[in-house]
What we know:
globular
Amino acid sequence: MRPMMPSMALTRSLELTAKWHSVPALKARLARKNAEFVVADNGKDIGGMGYAAMSETLKKGAILHQLYVHPKFQRQGIGRDMFAELETCFPDAEFMQLEVEPQNHAALSFYEAHGFVKIGETANCGDGQSGIPTIIMEKPLES
Ligand SMILES: CC(C)(COP(=O)(O)OP(=O)(O)OC[C@H]1O[C@@H](n2cnc3c(N)ncnc32)[C@H](O)[C@@H]1OP(=O)(O)O)[C@@H](O)C(=O)NCCC(=O)NCCS
């Protein structure tokens, strides 16, 4: 039997994800000013990580770029704790924005539970013409 070909959208999504999580991309994030990483661990396992940075284009805006909890540890408050840390890291920011795929119901629920609201949509997640649609969400930050 012929193997099934992944759809163009899935292929693009996998390419973008590979680039997004590459070592050069990680190094660039580590070198960036006005940016914060958080890692959740119990001394043995890494349960999750998050990364946010001041926006280079939006005045007084921070961007939540990554928030991942290992599936084994989800729904135990780890995302909440990491987000609580990240949202206090940018005293100059008046709001935080993020992009999330419309079918990512867990993330949408998580962000809504943490005060984010939908402010728009884009047909191209990330840089360039990815062709991956995302919802843009925003939350005001305490000054
Ligand atoms: C989104 C994500 C980071 C949430 O992390 P988590 O540690 O599982 O979330 P928490 O346990 O801190 O949940 C806090 C609250 O968010 C909401 N929530 C979290 N996961 C949810 C889910 N699957 N369904 C509905 N609500 C959810 C709930 O209100 C929850 O509170 P409750 O458990 O008291 O009901 C996690 O699901 C994840 O890593 N997903 C895969 C990666 C991803 O999609 N990241 C976001 C990319 S934009």
